[in-house]
Write a structure and sequence with these properties.
single chain, alpha+beta, Lipocalin, eight-stranded antiparallel barrel, disordered C terminus
């Protein structure tokens, strides 16, 4: 009788433990940002924001703004940086001698990024990347 109970326990342990681990890993998995995101909130400020965009393509991170004062709404790029993805949904990049670190969270088409250096946060919405801007 005792052997039967032990075998039943072993069977449950071999099935249930990997299932719990799989569920835990899939619920904690956060995909990396991919595509173009438009700034909609900068530290709580939602009015009078520039038309600023952030782009993610693999390990490349870029930013640009649409100049609303120009005649054609020119695209002004800030350049591309190589980023490294860390654990806990953090990516880092280096500019000059400073390493910037951002914690990100994706929820459908909304990307939230919080600086790990200062008390800054950014909220962006994913855009349709088929827009065509005039390069400047």
């Amino acid at each position: 009788m005792r052997l039967k109970i032990l075998k039943r326990f072993e069977f449950k342990r071999k099935i249930i433990t990997p299932l719990i681990i799989l569920i835990f890993l899939t619920t904690c998995y956060q995909p990396v940002p991919n595509g173009e995101y438009r700034l909609i909130n900068w530290n709580g400020q939602t009015d009078y924001l520039p038309k600023q965009y952030f782009t993610f393509k693999g390990n490349e991170f870029g930013a640009f703004v649409i100049d609303e004062h120009g005649e054609h709404g020119d695209k002004i790029e800030y350049g591309t940086k190589l980023i490294e993805y860390q654990t806990n949904n953090i990516f880092t990049f280096k500019r000059n001698d400073t390493i910037y670190s951002w914690k990100y969270h994706l929820n459908n088409d909304t990307l939230t990024m919080r600086s790990q250096i200062n008390n800054m946060y950014i909220i962006c919405l994913k855009t349709v990347s088929s827009r065509k801007f005039q390069a400047h």
